[in-house]
Design goal:
Shape: globular
Strand content: under 5%
Distance between the termini: 10 Å
Low-confidence stretches: none
Amino acid sequence: MLERIISILFPMFAIAAVGYFVARHHRPDLSHANRLTMDVFAPALSFAVLAGKDFDLAAHRTLALAMLVVVALSGIAGLAVARAARVDLKTLLPPLMFGNSGNLGIPLAVLAFGDAALPSAVVLFVISTSLHFVFGGWLLDRQARLLMIWRLPLVFATIAGAIVSLMGWVVWPPLLMAIKMLGDIAIPLMLFALGARLAEAELSSWRIGLTGAIARPLLGAAVSWLVGIVLGIRGLDFALLVIYGAMPPAVLNYIFAERFNQEPDKVASIVLIGNILSLVFLPIALAMTLD
């Protein structure tokens, strides 16, 4: 079991480590690459999976609902943690609610369970990311327009893929292959960008960073386990739900904190320490769910 867990996690952290060291020594500007990931590669991945002939949209409704409930309950539990730690809710709640479903979630799902896990992983990623842009953006800026989510290429591609799946349409195979090849770029680029982004974070607020880094996977995994049992989710979907619950805080939390000037130094510490501690929590989550 230990050897299998190491073989699953090693490629992910190896690519992230390359990104980290490249960023430390060369400081490349990855803003354009990150923009391409969110505007081109991730939407292509989502569409290719949803529009594929082997994707059953109806079979993933419960999983999508479960992810929505997990995010909501994580936020409610996070209220108690924020008050106990005497931290601004706007600083701590987003990292506790939104895990690294893209940079780590999708690669981990594929490495652990194969391509069969990709549809469910994409569903979890889309739900989490969409909620992050809607509720996360509103939490940090009450004037934010909720309609902005419909302008996101990821959401547009997801809706388009869902329509193709529901209507039973068949996308011309060469076109679908081209879209899939674009989507395949997203996974390694997400991991590389994760390492590069962590190279910029600081540990200036390590106490709150440690609090958030530990609370995120513990609360997320516990809530995911409970929600999965209550909603009757089984097998691969249950395993992915729990693993996604144990994910470290999403790097997007740091980007949002910078944009809205919401104590970015503290959020950076939470994200950095959380992703470091994922070396501890993710193996535990895998050991609990692989069988």
